[in-house]
User: Fold these one by one.
Assistant:
Number 1:
Amino acid sequence: MTTSGPFSDLPDVPSFELTSESFRDGETLPPAQRSGRMHAGGQDESPQLSWSGGPAGTRGYAVTAFDRDAPGAGGFWHWAALNIPADVTSLPEGAGAEGGQQLPDGVVQLKNDAGFRGYVGAAPPPGHGRHRYVFTVYALDVEELDTRAGARPASLGSELSKHLLGTATMTGVFSR
């Protein structure tokens, strides 16, 4: 399966299951997953995510959230969490808070496009129409990606392509 989201040049890999107690695939993101920082009436809480069926050989995971409909050429990165241990198959709602206190030890959050390490909620420009927020879990053949902690999510493609075993995606939508 070709990966969905911003990394169109990633290799074709098997997919596995991703679900959320916070929202259903294809449905509107609730206020908790919308942005308060960016004045969209939300709380900037990353959604609860659970995944299953990761490929054999998985040694770690990464999670990203990306607005593919944001103005400009590169979309907008809402979240990237790397080096999630292979035995972790869910993250609680709010795990992507700045500081990452609810994340497992060793997980690194990259700076999102709002400029901080953590999750920033959905905040499409008013009148810009419906935006799709793609949440992706990447199964990897390494425990840790070789990426500087200050790197931006947009630079992950090269590292992911070297270690990718599978992906799981779901999409939430929001407009204002």
Number 2:
Amino acid sequence: MSKSPAYNNMVQRWFLLPVVGCLLFLFSCRQNDLFEKSAVIPKYEWRSDFPVTGHFIITDTSSAYSIYLVLRHTDAYKYNNIWLRIGLQAPGDTLFSQRVDIKLGDDARGWEGSGMNDIWELRKLLNGEPKRFRQAGKYYFSISQIMRDDPLPHIMSAGLRIEKR
């Protein structure tokens, strides 16, 4: 006695359903190895008393992470660099901050990063080599502009990106 084609089709579907379900479950349970948060600068005029702040959670202290500054500016920005105060606070610790001079471009080659029309986005590696966080938990960050111009025009957004290596 032979089985009908409809029956064979139904058996194939019932067999594939658990396989597809298992694959979806495995890929949906992967840990997100990336954090990125940026804040829009009001009126594209970054005041020195407007820090970009946020937090991220580290659970894996055995892995190394790369830390990037993410900055978006317009083509009308008049400097080739930007001075920032970047702070990082580990769980249960005080805020450690440092002044950083970030090169955005030069007169010969133009802006660094990727551009579309008159908007430029730059991702600049802040730690030379990937860094391990010593303890798990919630880390806070703060980014402030410390240029002489206050407010600093033509800066659209600023933020931080953490990538697990």
